Structure formats: structure tokens, C-alpha cells
Amino acid sequence: MKEGKLDFHELREIIINSRKIKRDEVLIRNDVGEDCSVIDFEGYEAMFSTDPITGATENIGKLAVNINCNDIASSGGEPIALLVTILAPVTSTLKEINYVMKEISEEAAKINVEIIGGHTEVTSAVNKLIISITVIGKNKKGESIKTAGALEDDDIIVTKNLALEGTAILATDYEERAKKVLNNQELKEAKDLIKYISVLDEGRIGKEIGANSMHDITEGGLLGALFEVAMASSKGFLVYEDKLPFLESTKKIAKEFSIDSLRLISSGSMLITTSKGEEMIKALTSNGIKATLIGKVTRSKGILVSNGVELEVKEPERDELFNIK
Where's the PurM-like C-terminal domain (predicted)? Predict the structure, then answer.
């Protein structure tokens, strides 16, 4: 394809095909030449978050939608709309761009989020397809939850299993190598973990029951998320490695790729701190969401107890996904 913006007819077709949801709050929506979208937030707080997808090759549309909407859910809000930026290398085809946009629009439709704008461009500045999404959400005034809200003695809960996203990415993007340690059924299940990376339900339940802090576990894995919550809240934590929920397929893949699953990207799992741990776990479980109590918020220092030894958790470095051997 030629460098530069897609032509009028190509872009218009992509916009129309991606318009699967129309929210009443959207007063002006995306179209060719319409550079600003307008949303009515009467009685609500507006919420915004943005992130690119850089570490994966497959399922990037699904990942892009969910990791951004998860940020809104982690603050107790509801995602309303997305703005999508696609930067495609000159080796791309229109078919590839349409496929990714179809994936984005279908994933957004599943969670009732409208695509209201963005930008699509072919450029020699990138050597693979890059997607960056900005999500707009809403919450009732005064009800947004801060990452910095963790309180001393809060229970620390994680949902589902850890490293779901990292496991799915490695099983998909490095399939031949993953086959060395996973049988056909395990490989299929590992790939299918991509279906479970939304934490919108956890965000809703966490808000209802009384989470003091919520954080979706993304780059840097569980230890990265714990460190960020502790730093934001000026607190510490004490968690137990033997309580951490990992799938056997994740353990096998981590060993094969010589990576630390505690620091592997983990979208799909929500970190929740609350003074109502038992009630929170009961509510999550009754809604079909696995929930595990892994430790407590403390006054200071981040401690991981591994085989009876207390290890201080240091500032996270780059995600293990970028340390593949």
C-alpha cells in the first residue's frame, strides 16, 4: 500500500462497517472529515484512558479493546466509546487493516462500546501493525475508585488465573515452540484464554461490594501491579506465592521460555484491595468469577513469601514478554 492516509472511499467503508453500536450519549459521531466526537455526560464523571498494543502479533484488535476498557473498569466506571489509531507498515494490505478493524468492532460490540473516531495511516515509520486506543467512560459523580485507595490491612484479591494474556500471546505467536510443552488440548485452551481478558464484571462487582482500590494486572504482571498499587497508596503488601493461581499451561510455558510468570502480562485478572475480603470473594464467585485471597496490604515494603522466605519486591522492569529466550 502507499504511504499516507487511506483514501476517502476506503476509510468511509471501514468507518461504516465498524459502526455496530450507537450510544444515546454520543451526540456527534465519527465520519470522514468529522474530527471531533461529542458525548453528553450529564450527572456523571468523564473517564479517559489510552494504551497501544506493541507486544503481540495476533489478536491485537481484541487485546486493544479490552486492555483499554479494563482501565475504566478498574476505576469502577463504564466504558462508553473508543477512538482507534492504526499505523500500518507499507507492506500491509487493505484486507489486513479491514480484518483488524473488524476484530476491534466486534469486540467493542460485545461490551456495548461505540467506536466514535480515530485515525488510520500507512507509514514506513513502523514495521508491523500498531494499534493505539483511547477509551472514554463514565461513572456517577463521586464514585470513581483510585489505584491509590488501598488501605492498611485490606485483603488483596486476584480474579481468574494470573498471566492469562501472556500465556495466550505466547501460545499463539510462538505456537511451534509452545507445542514442545503443551499437548493439543492444552495448546487450544491456552490460545482460548484470550477470550477471558475483560475485567468489566470484576470492576462492577468490586465497586458494588466496596473495593478500596482496583488495578488490572497488565505489563509487569502481578508483582508489577502490586508495586504500582503500593506506590500509589504509600503502602506495602505481604503476599504468598503458594496462594497465587496459575494454570498448569502457564507454568509449562514459563519454564519453556525461561520467564518469570509473576512478571508476565496478565490482562484478565483484576487486583482488588478491600476490607470486605470474604464478601468480595463470595460475590465474585457467585457471578462465576474465580477469586483468590493472596495476602494483605501492609504499612510499608512489598514482600513476597516464597517457600517460607520473605523477599522484598523491587521496582518492576520491562515485562517478561520482552525477555523471551
Answer: 153-302
